[in-house]
């Protein structure tokens, strides 16, 4: 499934762009806890996207070979979300909880925006 890899690489580029904006916001504004929460959440969101892309690729290979299909790793992605929220609750003076949660949703937002952009581009 090379198209999964291409989609992942494109979305990873968008997330790195957002992370660079968050780092600039952390460095040059007084909202350090908010931007640090966004950085943590988005970084773990990128890790979850990588896990999802890798497992989807393995899933496609297993289906093509007729082998038994394993899960797509929902528990590991949920564990990273729980870990990031626990960190935000443990260090509220460093990490803004809502920013961490918003950062965790970043990859899903990027996936939706990328889907709509590709749908528009394929029509033209």
Concise account of the structure shown:
It is found in: Cell membrane. This protein has helices at residues 2-28, 32-65, 74-90, 97-104, 106-123. The chain is mostly helical and 124 residues long.
Using brief descriptors, characterize the structure shown.
124 residues, mainly alpha
Number of strands: 0
Low-confidence stretches: none
Main sheet makeup: none
Number of domains: 1
Average of per-residue pLDDT values: 92
Instruction: Estimate the strand proportion.
Output: under 5%
Helix content: over 70%
Determine the N-to-C terminus distance: 25 Å
Structural class: mainly alpha
Cα-based radius of gyration, to the nearest Å: 17 Å
Number of helices: 5
Shape label: flat
Provide the succession of SSEs: HHHHH
